[in-house]
Amino acid sequence: TQAAATATAASLLQIETRGRLLLVGLNRPAKRNALNDGIILEIEQVFQALPSDIGAVVIHGIGGHFSAGLDLSELQERDATAGLMHSRMWHRVFDLIQQARVPVIAALQGAVIGGGLELACAAHIRVADPSAYYALPEGSRGIFVGGGASMRLPRLIGVHRMADMMLTGRVYKSEEGVALGFAQYLTDADGALTKALELAERVAQNAPLTNFAVLQALPLIAEASPQTGLMLESLMASVAQSDQEAKNRIRDFLERKVGKVKSE
Ligand code: 1HE
After folding, report:
1. Which of 195, 33, 196, 30 is nearest to 114 (CA)?
2. CA of 248 to the centre of ligand 1 (A)
3. Which CDD domains match (predicted)?
4. Residue 188, pLDDT score
5. What integer pLDDT is reported at residue 264 of this predicted model?
6. CB atoms within 10 A of CB 103
7. What is the pLDDT of residue 259?
8. DSSP assignments along 27-44, one per residue
9. Residue 81: how many CB atoms within 10 A of its CB?
10. Which of 11, 82, 110, 195, CA to CA, is 20 to 30 A from 128?
11. Is the CB of 137 under 6 A from ligand 1?
């Protein structure tokens, strides 16, 4: 397929297809997966050309770190206009991830720093192993976030906590991360990718329209005025339940062909 060809050509990403799952590995381990323009544009290509048989995507870092953030060696070259365009380019690509047709799961280990944290925030589910840590050293580098963190991260951890990280350089450990909202899952040592794949397998089996509603409609509803949000919810609910896929799944439950909800 076209996407497979794109993936093969990509050199800063390691792309692998496992059944209906697409694994996107950030592959600059010698630079701790620092995000240069090349890697961001390769991510864009992958998400623009997602094959239709892919049901979920897992983003992970090769070499023990998720990402050390913006490649600081490229920053020196930029004036104000180039900086603005660069930030808008990241926004375009990370919006593509957030608005992907299928769920995107980030498997986090080691450094999840600056732009690496911004990338993780664009995913729908974050899974961290105990080695992960979260930091925004922009403050001490004399810069500001530019990859969407000021919009996405406060929705996860609160603006006060993000401000503290930027002002004081505070680093949060993986163990604290789940309670605070950085990640939804904490695994055993080196377990992030395995758990992310397990979750990806599960979400890929959902009705496509349910995944669409959760990824596209839910964030809009959550940000809307209450009455607009409730109306959007009703419209989405009615569309989803009238889909044949929903009818089949509900009939299967009523005919006791599928499992019940279990508490563990
Ligand atoms: C890099 C980068 C990078 C590593 N840009 N080259 N991000 C930061 O401020 C984090 C900067 N990085 C670090 O603090 C450390 O590298 C780590 C804690 C992530 C890892 O430490 P360590 O000891 O395992 O590795 P290292 O020896 O520091 O780094 C290995 C190499 O990667 C080294 O290059 P080398 O040629 O000397 O081997 C480092 O220079 C290189 N490297 N991180 C460029 N970030 C859209 S706005 C977003 C704004 C931000 O993201 S600001 C946060 C930037």
Report:
1. 33
2. 51
3. crotonase-like (cd06558)
4. 97
5. 79
6. 21
7. 85
8. --GGGTT-B-HHHHHHHH
9. 8
10. 11
11. yes
Sheet bearing 13-18, strands edge to edge: 13-18, 21-26, 56-61, 104-108, 125-128, 185-186
Cβ 102 vs Cβ 56: under 8 Å: yes
20 Cα to the center of ligand 1, angstroms:
33
User: What's the gap in Å between 80 CA and the centre of ligand 1?
Assistant: 23
Contact 161, 19 (CB under 8 A): no
Nearest-atom number in ligand 1 for the CA of 87 is 46
Report the alpha-carbon distance of residue 70 to residue 58 in Å, rounded. 20
Give the separation between CA 116 and CA 34, rounded to whole angstroms.
Answer: 8
Closest atom of ligand 1 relative to the 135 alpha carbon: 53
Q: E-strand spans in the chain?
A: 13-18, 21-26, 56-61, 104-108, 111-113, 125-128, 133-135, 172-173, 185-186
- Residue-range domains of the chain with CATH: 2-203 (3.90.226.10), 208-254 (1.10.12.10)
Tell whether ligand 1 has an atom less than 6 A from the beta carbon of residue 31: yes
Q: Is 255 considered catalytic here?
A: no
**pLDDT averaged over 10-residue windows placed end to end, the chain, 264 residues:** 46 96 98 98 97 97 98 89 96 97 98 98 98 95 95 98 97 98 98 98 96 95 97 96 92 91 88
Question: What's the pLDDT score for residue 77?
Answer: 79
Q: Is ipTM beyond 0.90?
A: yes
Q: Helix, strand, or coil here: 83?
A: helix
Residues 110, 71, 18, 45: what is their CA dihedral angle, to the nearest 10 degrees? 160
Residue 138 appears among annotated catalytic residues: yes
Question: How many whole angstroms separate alpha carbon 98 and alpha carbon 126?
Answer: 13
CB of 86 sitting under 6 A from ligand 1 = no
Ligand 1 midpoint to CA 166 (Å): 17
34 CB less than 6 Å from ligand 1? yes
